[in-house]
Amino acid sequence: MRWHLLLRSGPGLTGIAILLALTLMALFAPWIVPYDASELSGRPFEPPSAAHLLGTNDIGQDILSELIVGARVSLTIGVLAAIIAVVIGTLVGVVAGYFGGPIGAVLMRLVDVALVIPFVPLMVLLAAYLGQSLWNLIVVIGLLIWARPARIIRSYVLTLARQDYILAARALGIPGGRIVLRHVLPGVFSLALAQFVLAASASMLLESSLSFLGLGDPTQKSWGTMLFYAQTRSAFLSGAWLWWVVPPGLMITVAVLGFALVGFALEEITSPKVQRQSAPPKPTRTKLPVVPSLPKAGVTSSTPEKQG
Amino acid sequence: MLPWIAVTLNFLLPRMMPGNPLALIAGEDVNLLSPEQRAELVARVGLDQPLIVQYGRYLQNILRGELGYSFQWKQPVVDVLAQRLPWTLLLTGTSLVIATLIGVVLGSLTAWRRGSRGDVGTFIFFLFLESLPAFWVGMLLVAIFAVRWPLFPTFGATSPWETLTGWDYVLDVLHHLALPLATLTIVSVSGTFIVARSAMMAVLGEEFITVARAKGLAERQVLFRHALRNAMLPIATVFTLNLAFAVSGATVVETVFSYPGVGRLIFEAVLSRDYPVIQAAFLMITVLVILANILTDAIYPLLDPRIRGAVSSAQGAAR
Predict the structure, then answer these.
(1) Which residues of A touch B127 (CB under 8 A)?
(2) Structural domain total, chain A
């Protein structure tokens, strides 16, 4: 794998820098927050000052501290949900792609269905019934966005299965399960990694929407939850929107964009192999990622989760 | 086949949910009932019957178009949906058309100039738009264009307590539509853009484009008449898919603007455990998603004569 290429692509490098900064912020949150985020450290609706750099919210909590601690919640949900999605997606993709057969056909039919479900309403339903907890959010999001990784990984496995070294292994009589473990899975790894990063981008956006609707974990305030309170307290009707509404949204945007930049850069580095075999050759190689031409069917796309 | 699976899931899901199934019929009042009343109610609606009998009845009712009665709105579910659907279609449908036009035009132009600085910049800009949380964009637009400068109303689809007619009514509706529409379009335009761009890039590399250029046709003509025509397939796929999504409303945007659409309705129904509304809404969405897929299959041969007669395989390839 030509990982160094990632560091040479401008957008990819920007994305890595963003993610690194956010991760550090989340890791060291307890040591860098000016106040305890749940403590009432000031008067309500205090505008930004030296004591409270981003002011306070409706009950007098320090917004900068909430923002820093919120990074932990938002990133955790995004990353864990993406892990669930990619593990399921890889399993389904490898089974459907390598073994095929009736099980493969059923699995791909399932993928088709999962891709066209408008899932914000479904997610709202599940999140509301399962109850408001961090883990439920993670599971709900993960279970709804596995289909895109599954489809992409399957199409790669299809080409991988025709490679000489896999054919040779099969000719030697090595059992399928062993080939998958020793040869197919390692071959799929870098593609799965790219899909993981893109899924994390989508999960964070979905998490923010759910939390904004008030379906987040009330004990673990994420950036979306902050905006939920800002909305219910009508922060945008007063001057408070400048320091209460703008910062959390910016953090969400930057984090989602960071993951997307890294994801697209990774996809570009890892996909030429796929393209050379499955698509007609392109006359000139572009600097930009060639995004698969089919609808992201909502998974990272603005469409469903955004509209929802 | 697919409709049947959807309908069956729709039947089973609420029955697997935790909670008292009686709440399904009696709503929140269920705790006020005496044991005798409860038993009577259970018998009346058939909850004491085996699941398979209930299932048969459920299918019968759907075929008759009886979707039940909303607890929250105290009226037939069909009426509740019928009131919300036009607003959602106005909002999401208009946004879909605008976003598609912008996405296709800009996607084509950047594909044509790929690799140039403007192209990279546009791509990253659209990636940024894609990363924006819809509700946040909405909140900012309200704060700026409805509160700071009160140009637009902050909520609703029409002015309350006013009976406007004719042009005044239309203007009032458009006035209320502006901000939600802008929000939805800003966050959804990148989907079409990215698809249009990659489809155009694939087509622009083909030989007939070189031929068209060699014939001395104007670049604009090559781009929009020769290339776009051939890149329509994936674009149409996204469009019809989004059309189906459009019906499910835009929960988050409708929440920010208190817009009376289907997305908001589903959310309210979930919060108040209004099962008949939830079931009917999901049924409607599923049916429309399936219709959209059939529509896509029907459109393909019109857009691309090469796949006439081989629709199913073409769709498989497109996927």
Answers:
(1) 257, 260-261, 264
(2) 1
